[in-house]
Structures are given as structure tokens and as C-alpha cells.
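A favour, since you know our C-alpha cells better than I do. Go ahead and set the record down below.
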Amino acid sequence: MKNDTDEILFPPPGKTPRDDTAAVMKFYKLAKSFPREVLAEAKEVAARAKGARRGRRLDLRKKFIFTCDPVTARDYDDALSFEKDLRGNRILGVHIADVSHFVRPGGALDKEAYKRATSVYLATQVVPMLPEALSNGVCSLVPGEDRLTFSVFMTFDKSGRMIKRTFAKSVINSKARFTYEQVMRILAGGPHREARRIRAIHALAQQLRAARFAAGALDIAIPEAEVLLDDEGEMTGIVTRPYDESHQMIEECMVAANEAVATELWTKGVKIVARLHEPPDPEKIQLLREEMRSLGVKVGAIENPKVFAQLLQTIKKSPLYPTLATMVLRSMKRAVYASSDIGHFGLAKKFYAHFTSPIRRYPDLTLHRQLADYLARPASARRPPALLAKWAEHATEREQIATDAERGLVEIKKFRLMEAQLASRQILDYDAVIVKCRPFGCFVEIPELAVSGLVHVSQLSRRFVRFNEYDHSLSAPGGGSWRVGDRLKVQVAKVDFRERRIDFTPAGRSAGQPRRERTRRTWNSPS
């Protein structure tokens, strides 16, 4: 049987670990390269960029504008600025690469960008939406270079309420390229000539973040895990990327800009490709309630979004938080692109759309074009409903393919890690958590690897194991019980690529008997 977890269409591995990426790309029909006519147009656009007429733009080149991205980032499509008006209100500027200036509707670049719809971030490489001449070249907001942008200016009062929003085509010259780590050092008191400005943006971001959560936004903080690979494509470990206040600062600024653009257009009668996230279905809510109660978690009227959000704050204090958070995620609907409805349950936003990443998402590019038309002549911003619906459906489909491909390659690498242990007989012990019990066994998850698998009842006890429907637990006569949330140490017992299945067995003890603790070996875990 398959793992009782979120199902994706599992791609086959390559003949060797080096071939896994190619196998995944072939399985999902991801393009290996750009057509010649697309590269030719990108080269032509990049070559004439410096001499191209910029049109009437707001000149912001003397302003302190900066980017903040991961240390490994190669393209920078968003930048920030901060000022105060004469009344002391705060003006946050979010400046996004003006990709629409270079990628014109109907051209070879545009057709290919629409076809791809999104960049795909595989563990070993990026499959970009746009050629490098644009994504890492003229559209990337590198420091010290004039770049064309689309700016969103949002004015906030002391309470954090947005009291004004304006938009403008602009030209900037980024004064600094920060990493998240550098911003964290500044927020912690580190020196920088613009430290006060950066800390002011952070303070505003935290105010906006608190307001979102007070309105019922969901705070599910599960750290992002990155797979580490060696030169042969073998998995050597997993490193967890922190989600600290520097990440929160950038996220809140981007969320505010996305909301501002969506609100401006939608409320003025301009339908767009929105980012839609609907509330969970009632049956999913009921199932979540039952699962939570089986673990001793008190659940209130979680049909109410604010009560739902409060539940997330409560479970953060539980040692079972990763398991509980996964349960919550499984109860949620997937965010999609839509043209006939708008609103984001998870962010607690009435109006929301994607605007801030036109280098890597086609819906953002279409929104840039509509906003530009709206500013020039409002009536020209409208698009046929059937066309918007087509764009939304295509973008949603391509996003799901990208997600499946990214997850699929990572899962292959994890399966290879387990398989290599069996082949070498250097089998390690892992700390696991029971996430679900069934009559035939219990499903466990190894948090440090984000790997799931089954421990069959025959491995739990030599005696008959009974499934208790009331609390969804397993028990054996004379001792031994297993329920959701229990922790145990496991070893890999079987790996089946074709069936997408990993079986585990309790580690270091006779089945069903207490285990004497011993020192656990490591597996090249990064420090």
C-alpha cells in the first residue's frame, strides 16, 4: 500500500543519481532550453535596453533603495524604500522589475513565458520562465545600475492603516544588495548608515503582520528544508532555512504591495487574475476537529476564521506542533489563480493578487500590464472574462506541475538515501512521530528528513494488535500501545520506488518491547 500522505504523481528516478533531474524534467515535460527565436529576442531586448526610450518615468535614482534576498539568489526582482511625509506618516515603496517593458504581448518572449507560466526550482537547477539575459540581466535590480521598475507607494498612519496608495513607472539605482543574514544583524543592532531606515521598515512590517493575525490570518511557520547533494547527485543531508524577522519584513512588504494593486483594480471594476484561497470545506474542518481531539487538543468553533487562527497559536506550544501543523495544512484548500472571485483566507485579505514577481510568474506580468493600462486610461485595462479565465486556469495548472516536479525530485533523493542505507547495511536510527494509525499499522514521519513511511503491525508486536476506532490507536494485549503523536525510533526496512513506499521497523529492540536508549549515529548532518 502507498503512504497515507498527500499524493502526487510520483516521477521515476534516473538510471543514476546524476540522471534524476533529467528524468523528472522529462516526466513533467519541462523545457530543457529556450527556442532560438526566444533567445534571439531576449538578446535583442537586452542589447538595446540602455538606449531604449524609457518613457515618462518617476526618477528615483537618488533615493536609498535596496534589495534583500537569499545569499544564493541570482536575480533580484523587488526592492524597498522608506520615507515619511510632512505629517509623520510612513511611506513604504515597493519597486518591482518592470518586465512588461521588455516582454511585449504577442512576441516570442511573451508566448514562451505564457507557455511556461512559472519558473521551476528543482533541487539541482532552476528552469526559468524567462531567458537569463532578462532574468539575471536587464530585469534584475542589481546594485549600482539603472533599472526600470514599477513602483507601489503605500502610506500608513501610526496605527498601521494604509491611508493612501499610488503607483508609477519608475527608474531606480539600487544602493545596496542585502542578504537576509545582513538584515538580521542590522535589526539586532549592527551598524549601517541606513540602519534607522531599515529598522523602521521592520517595525512597520511587524505592525502589519500583527494586524493580519488579529484579522484571522493563519500563522503556520514550518521552516523550509533544502536538500544537500554531492557531485554525484546523492543526498548528503537536509538544512533547514530559518524564517526569521528579515524574511518576515520582506514578506509583509510584498503582501502589502500585492494587496494594494489588487484592491485598486478590483474595486475600480477591473477584473484581474487574482490569487484565490478559499476557506476549508466543512467536512475537512470536522475531520481536523476529530484528529485534534484524539490528540487531546481542545478545539473550539474553528469554522470561524479567527478561532481557526487562534488554534494555530495554541498548538505552537505543543511538542507535537510539526504533526499538528501538518494536519492543519491538509485540511486547507490549495491557493489557485482565479478570474471570477477574489480573496485570500490564509492571509486574511479581501483583495489579493500576485504582482511582485514578474520575472518568475506570468500572472504577475499580466497584472503589470493591466495596471499600466489602468494608469494611462482606465477603460483600456479591462480584459475579456474568457481570456482572464483561460490565463488563470493555465497558470494554476503550470504552478501545480512545478510544485509536483520540485517535490518529486526531492522525494527521489530521499528514497535513494534510504535505499543506499539498505545496500550498504549502514542503517541509521531516526526519531519518528506517529502521524496516523490504521488497522494494518501506523504511518510515521521523520521530521529531520520530512520522510514518511509505514510501520506494519507485524513489526510492532509479536502478539495480535488491535485497532481502536474510538481514538484511532493501536494496542497489543499485555502491553504496548501506539497512538498519533507518539515518538519512536525507527530504521528503514524496505524501499519500493515503483510503489512509492518506504517501510520502517522499530529500531534496536524486539518488536513491542521497551527499548534501551543508545547513542544515535549521524549521517553527515550539517552544522
User: Anything to note?
Assistant: The first helix runs from residue 20 to 27. The longest strand covers residues 162-173.
